[in-house]
Amino acid sequence: MKALEFIRTALFVPGNRPDRVDKAVRTAADVVIIDLEDAVPHSQKKQTRAVVREKIMDYQGRPVLVRINALDTEFFQDDLNTVVVAGLACIMVPKVETVAQIQQINRRLLKVEEKKDMRPGSVSII
Question: What is the CATH number of the domain that holds 39?
């Protein structure tokens, strides 16, 4: 993806703090990474996903990445299903250790993109 070729500065912001997300997007950081993983308590994951999805759609034209929960968690698929929308540049998946895990993540991401009539591969994976 063209917008992500050269990332000099990345600003992580907790997804459960929409005020901080708004502030981060107004900075000069090359990308904003909205965190759904460690920064968000388990009890707030569901409502935070919906907020993050709205923020992604609000910031069309600005590279926004989302750090979702790990593949082996109960939150992974719901994260994908909710935040993969037009305008999302990339998902960052923590705790990936093998090529097989990346391949599985890619297959699952492609299914979500297809279900949402998005171009396959339009969302990158870090």
Answer: 3.20.20.60
- Report the C-alpha gap between 34 and 125 in whole angstroms: 14
* Phi-psi map region of 83: left, alpha, beta (phi>0 left; psi -120 to 50 alpha): alpha
pLDDT, position 4: 64
Q: For the whole model, what pTM was predicted?
A: 0.91
Domain count, the chain: 1
Q: For residue 1, tell me if it sits in a domain.
A: no
Q: What is the pLDDT of residues 15-37, one digit of tens each?
A: 999 999 999 999 999 899 999 99
Instruction: List Cα–Cα distances, 115 to 46, 82, 98, in angstroms.
Output: 20, 12, 26
Handedness of CA 27, 121, 126, 43 (dihedral sign): positive
